Hints:
- The chain is mainly alpha-helical.
- The protein has a domain at 1-93.
- 62% of the residues lie in helices and 6% in strands.
- GO terms for molecular function: zinc ion binding.
Amino acid sequence: MVFEDESSEETSSLPYMHSTSSTDRLNQVRQVPFSVEDPDYQGLELETMSPCEKHGKASERLVAFEGTDTGRRFLACAEPPLRYRALPFLTLRNLACIFQQWASSSALGLREQAQMAKRDAESEKLKQNYEVLLNLTRAQATIIQNLKLKHITDKQLLSEAKMNLELKNAELTKSEEKLTQDKLELKFQVADLLKGKEKHGEEMVQLELQFAELMKAEEKLKEKIKGIQAILEK
Length: 234
């Protein structure tokens, strides 16, 4: 594994190379540290002759993200999982870019957390509004049900009252019919009484006439008796 040297310039075309022997290089072999993606430094190193000392293949460009080496570019074996140093240390030229990406990632995470918190708050508010609406709907349904029950009860009471009124009206009609019949019978009785009274008057007249005739007959009889007595006295 090889790191860039801090003394290299941005415009340099070749990295600075330490003069170490092959034996020293093999003694410097160690496991590759954790790395991060850098769009400006990735893929295989084909511009410089820095093959892997074990496999003899092109080295891979990586950016360290571990300990004091964080942000430094290095070359490592492209054969996972074991990667070895291929060249001496080189200087990282865009450490600021790595930290900027790191800060951007952190800021993005904070923004995502803020957005998630905002979405959670909106979701909680929507949930509360839904619960309020659900409670209102339930209350409205209860009121409607109570009104329906009250309407049914009132309708039943009205029907019973109407039935009772019809029964009373029928009874009153029967009473009126009976009263009319009694009144008619009373008229007939009065007419009969009037007829009886008229007949009685006629009978009284006849009796008076008969009494007058009897009185006349009695006077005639008295005159006859007086005539007979007068004859007898002579």
